[in-house]
Design a protein that fits this description.
By secondary structure, this protein is mainly alpha-helical. It contains eight helices and no strands. The chain is globular, with a radius of gyration of 19 Å. 33% of the residues are buried.
Length: 221
C-alpha cells in the first residue's frame, strides 16, 4: 500500500512539474521573438471575419479591468461557493491573486512589443508590452478556475452549462483582444495556458478528488 501510494504521489508531482516546465520553457522564446509563426495570419484573419465596428471588443476588454471586473469576480465567487462551499470561494481568490502577482512580476521581464500597425489594424495605440495578456490572466484564472472546479465537483447539466459558459467567455475574450490588435494570438493562448494551469493546480491542492480521498481513507483503516 505504501509503495503504491508513493508511486501515485510521484506520478502526480511529475505530471504537474512537466506542465509547468512547458510554461516556463515558452517564456524565453516569447521574449526573443516579436511574434510566433502564424500570429500575423491569425490576427489578419480574425480582423477580416469580425465586425469592423470593434466597440464590442473594447467593451469586452473593459470587463477585465476594475471596477467592472469586480462584478464578474462576485459572480464567480457565488458559483464557486455553490459548487464547493467557502473553500471554493477562497480557492477562486487564490487563483486570481496568483495570476495578478505573476502578471505584474513577469511583465517587465518579457519585452515582446505590441503588434505592429504595419501587420495588423490597431483599434488604438497601446503602451506597454504584448505579453503577458493581463486580460487573459484574469479571465483564465477566474473562468478557467470555474471550469476546473465544475469538472472536479459537479456532474450532469450543471457541469455542461458551466463548461460551455466558461469556454464561450474565454473564446470571445481572446478573439476580442486579437481583433483589437492589442495582442498576438500566441500572447492570449499562452497566457490562458498559464492561468488555467495555475487554476488547475490550485484546485488539485485545495480540492482533492473523491478517488484520492477514498484511497487515503482506506489506507488509514
Amino acid at each position: 500500500m505504501c509503495s503504491e501510494r508513493l508511486h501515485e504521489d510521484c506520478s502526480f508531482y511529475f505530471k504537474w512539474i512537466a506542465l509547468f516546465v512547458v510554461a516556463v520553457s515558452l517564456l524565453p522564446a516569447i521574449d526573443y521573438y516579436p511574434c510566433f509563426p502564424g500570429d500575423v495570419a491569425i490576427g489578419q484573419w480574425v480582423q477580416r471575419v469580425v465586425s469592423p465596428d470593434l466597440t464590442w471588443a473594447e467593451e469586452i476588454s473593459h470587463t477585465a479591468k476594475f471596477p467592472s471586473f469586480a462584478s464578474l469576480l462576485l459572480l464567480a465567487l457565488v458559483l464557486s461557493w455553490s459548487l464547493a462551499g467557502w473553500r471554493g470561494a477562497i480557492l477562486c481568490l487564490a487563483s486570481l491573486f496568483g495570476m495578478l502577482v505573476f502578471g505584474h512580476w513577469i511583465g517587465p521581464l518579457i519585452t515582446r512589443p505590441r503588434p505592429s500597425p504595419e501587420l495588423v489594424h490597431l483599434f488604438r495605440p497601446l503602451s506597454g508590452h504584448s505579453f503577458p495578456s493581463m486580460f487573459a490572466l484574469r479571465y483564465g484564472s477566474v473562468f478557467g478556475f470555474l471550469a476546473v472546479l465544475a469538472i472536479r465537483t459537479s456532474s450532469g447539466p450543471v457541469r455542461v452549462a458551466i463548461l460551455i459558459a466558461c469556454a464561450l467567455l474565454l473564446s470571445v475574450g481572446g478573439i476580442a483582444r486579437v481583433a483589437l490588435g492589442a495582442h498576438w494570438a500566441s500572447d492570449v493562448i499562452i497566457s490562458y495556458y498559464i492561468a488555467i494551469l495555475w487554476a488547475a493546480w490550485v484546485v488539485s491542492l485545495g480540492m482533492p478528488d473523491r478517488g484520492a480521498r477514498e484511497t487515503e481513507n482506506l489506507g488509514r483503516i
